[in-house]
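To illustrate the input format used throughout this study, we show a single complete record. The first block contains the structure-token representation of the backbone; no residue identities are included at this stage. The design step must infer an amino acid for every position from geometry alone.
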């Protein structure tokens, strides 16, 4: 057992609110499971030493934080600073048919909905998911009513500004024939620890456009996840962009719980020198006629380490499933490391499934071609890197976000250049 986990268990024992039964169950699991060893397959390539002897300290004072801007994006911003909701929900102009409720100030009616959804989208969670279950008193519940089409995005921002632990939870219920756009964004580079988990219930004929920007860097440590449950004829379009830091882990789970559900997920992860990023994805096809397309592309800098584990599980009753998983990686240095593990587990016989993974280096001929034509090395690397991920950027549905990503990723590539 680690020092940090012992302190988490002690502090979680004092939490008593309407989610107490779920929190106590998570606490019991934490006590029984203990600290994951390196022989644990889920953490085999991701050392937890930066956390093991850390002190578990929650924020006691609020700090001012600059909200990262996305130009030309008209969104509802919900800001958490060091795990504390800094946005006054009563002042937000929420579109008709949508409600946004704070977990810490919810009324009895909202509490019933929150209790029914909390922990239901991903019933089985790893250690840090259980920590979030036990300690996430800060968070929001977003409900989109039946037949409501909400075009205005909701952006949930987690900002780390001081050396404390932060635990936030997002619950989103998209009711039948409704649609919504949700953005999750994490930023910060100071020594800190954040667990940020979100659960999405996408009902019959509903649609969710989703973004997760896990952009913590430096000594910031973030362990989080976005979990989705799709029902009959529901659709999901998810875009993930992840940076590396001292320790960054993201879990994305998509559960096809209804027929003719359709999911698309594009993921990009970019690691500068010495950074770590771990992306675990799990696709559960439990019902017939579902489709999933997952594309993950990573660019790994000098002495950086990326981990990708993508699993597609086709259940016995999930006949006529179409599922495809592709992971491509580019190493900027031979001292970079990528551990990739695509998996297919199929129990149905009438399916079309494929998976694959590649690891390559920058083509010296292409780099030489640009250098001999007067292009600087740094600019040439940006051009080649963009070419590697351009297809996924072009797939971004929101034009404002796509336009914002271009200079943001250009700057990231400059930080990743091997000297």
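Output of the design step:
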């Amino acid at each position: 057992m680690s020092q940090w986990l012992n302190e988490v268990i002690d502090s979680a024992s004092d939490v008593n609110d309407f989610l107490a039964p779920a929190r106590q169950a998570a606490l019991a699991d934490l006590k029984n499971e203990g600290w994951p060893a390196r022989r644990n397959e889920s953490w085999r390539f991701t050392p937890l030493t930066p956390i093991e002897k850390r002190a578990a300290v929650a924020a006691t004072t609020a700090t001012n934080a600059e909200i990262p801007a996305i130009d030309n994006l008209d969104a509802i911003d919900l800001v958490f600073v060091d795990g504390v909701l800094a946005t006054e929900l009563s002042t937000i102009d929420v579109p008709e048919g949508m409600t946004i409720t704070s977990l810490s100030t919810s009324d009895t009616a909202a509490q019933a909905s929150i209790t029914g959804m909390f922990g239901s989208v991903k019933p089985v969670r790893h250690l840090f998911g259980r920590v979030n279950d036990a300690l996430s008193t800060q968070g929001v519940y977003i409900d989109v009513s039946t037949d409501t089409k909400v075009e205005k995005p909701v952006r949930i921002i987690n900002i780390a500004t001081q050396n404390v632990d932060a635990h936030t939870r997002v619950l989103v219920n998209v009711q039948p024939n409704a649609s919504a756009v949700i953005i999750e964004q994490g930023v910060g580079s100071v020594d800190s620890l954040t667990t940020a988990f979100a659960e999405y219930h996408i009902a019959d004929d509903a649609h969710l456009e989703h973004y997760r920007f896990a952009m913590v860097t430096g000594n910031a440590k973030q362990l989080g996840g976005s979990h989705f449950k799709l029902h009959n004829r529901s659709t999901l379009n998810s875009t993930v962009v992840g940076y590396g830091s001292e320790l960054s882990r993201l879990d994305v789970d998509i559960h096809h719980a209804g027929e003719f559900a359709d999911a698309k997920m594009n993921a990009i992860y970019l690691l500068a020198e010495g950074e770590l990023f771990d992306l675990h994805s799990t696709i559960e096809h439990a019902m017939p006629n579902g489709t999933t397309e997952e594309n993950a592309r990573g660019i790994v800098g000098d002495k950086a380490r990326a981990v990708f584990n993508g699993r597609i599980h086709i259940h016995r009753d999930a006949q006529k499933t179409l599922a495809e998983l592709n992971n491509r990686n580019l190493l900027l240095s031979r001292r970079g490391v990528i551990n990739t593990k695509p998996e297919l587990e199929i129990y149905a016989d009438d399916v079309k499934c494929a998976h694959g993974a590649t690891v390559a280096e920058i083509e010296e001929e292409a780099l030489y071609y640009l250098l001999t034509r007067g292009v600087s090395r740094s600019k040439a690397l940006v051009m080649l890197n963009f070419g590697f991920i351009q297809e996924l950027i072009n797939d971004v549905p929101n034009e404002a976000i796509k336009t914002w990503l271009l200079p943001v990723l250009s700057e990231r590539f400059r930080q990743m250049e091997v000297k």
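Structural context for interpreting the output: The CA atoms of residues 231 and 258 lie 4 Å apart. DSSP finds eight helices and 19 strands in the chain.
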